[in-house]
Amino acid sequence: MLQSKRLRVLPVLATLFLALTLRGAESGQALAKFKNVHRIVFLGDSITYAGGYVDDIEAYYDTRFPDQHFEFINLGLSSETVSGLSEEGHAGGKYRRPDLHERLGRVLEKAKPDFTFVCYGMNDGIYQPFDEARFKAFQDGMKSVHEQIAATGAKIIHITPSIFDPAPIPAAKIWHTNGVSGFSHPFVGYNEVLGRYSDWLVGQRAAGWDVVNLHEPMNRWLAEQRQRDSHFEFTKEGVHPDAAGHWFMAKQILLYLGAKDLEGVDSPAAMVAGNPNGAEILRLVRAKQELLRDAWLTYTGHGQPQTKSGVPLPLAEARAGVIDKKIRELAKSNFLLSPPPAAPRPN
User: Fold this and answer.
1) In-domain check, residue 293
2) Is the pTM of this model over 0.85?
3) What mean pLDDT is predicted for residues 22-28?
């Protein structure tokens, strides 16, 4: 009888081992671009500052590779551009949009990234119709940013801008052919402007740039969601994604990095479900990232007066170290015995 039970258990264990091996092989490809990398910095505007997609990316690596100690630093800054442009009356006339070039040198000197993600464009068209002069300012600014980062030896991945959706915006706050322009009254066709900026960035692959095309897949995603639900929204004012939008961004970036095990995964919760402590790991990652983001922004300095100050960086790093230790303990706990994620159900 005992031998019979053992015989029945062996195929189950073999199946589990095979599933874990296949999952490990699929996720293992996501390490390739991070070879010899420790510190990973994200640069971007308020969408990056919000941090959702950055958190999800870190949680992926923490739950798959608990022994690989990558350091993810979010240095996104609200309102920022690479073009140096700012619409008239931005922020009620209180200040111009910050320009990444004003702080980039300090960021590179103080943060010393091994790898940098760069995501701009949303603010660079100033929420107005397409204009060649504004487009050239974006192109020149992005080329300058790329050259400065490359000069340090850091690897770079550019991310095309996310999408603009006019549907949630009240009619009185959006304009079609003329009127007050800018974030508070954006042009209805602004997503097409962002599409041209995105196409140009993708075209830089011919020059050797590493570029994640986020904009085009996000357009398709929104169209698919609207087919299922005509009232679907992922943003309240056309620009800033909610949690679902940030997850979509994170997933596209992770797939580009080689995370083949995310095919069919539909949420951060599902992404970390293979670890029994996945939900708690994700919560701790979010808390750690918020603490470090504000501390690093204060430490490196910036021109955004409405950004809250962080605690001194040494204190933030000490607190983050405690959180990080807990994350790694949870990630390693029962890691080898955790079941693979359930197969996604068909839509």
Assistant:
1) yes
2) yes
3) 57
Is it the case that residue 322 has pLDDT exceeding 60? Answer: yes
Give the count of domains, the chain: 1
92 confidence band (pLDDT: 50, 70, 90): confident
Query: Would 342 be classed as within a structural domain?
Result: no
What would the pLDDT profile of 166-187 be if each residue is shown by its tens digit? 999 998 888 876 666 789 899 9
Q: How many degrees, rounded to 5, is the angle at CA 117 between CA 272 and CA 195?
A: 100
User: Does 6 map to a domain?
Assistant: no
Residue 226 lies inside a defined structural domain of this protein? yes
